[in-house]
Amino acid sequence: MPATWLLRFASPERHEKDKAMITKIKTGLLVLALAVGAGASAAGAQPAPRTIHVDIHGFQFVPAHVDAHVADTIEWTNKDFAPHTASDAGGKWTTAPLNNGAIDRVVVKTPGTFAYRCNFHPHMKGTIVVTGNVAQSPKP
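Predicted structure:
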């Protein structure tokens, strides 16, 4: 390539303008990639596990209906003088018998709707609706 062509079409000023434009384009692409990546990770993220409190009072579960996410903990506190349990109607889980002031917990691990009751007082009923994905354990 002749040297005159380089001087005519690739002047030092033009070269600096091209470098500045390339830097701006790279920066814009980096910002766009970070924004898209952050949005994708937030969309697929599970909410942080939380503890949902249910009181047992007046021979009732209060609240009787609970919305939870996979990995949340449901915590029952007996505020009655009679003993109670919180037991899955399908027999998959149960709390220990809860005397007055006692607390027990269950971590929900599977999405679905779960009816539960007190084994001592079957008229006492509640429902837990669990949403989210089953937690995956890390692969070795």
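Summary: The mean pLDDT is 83.
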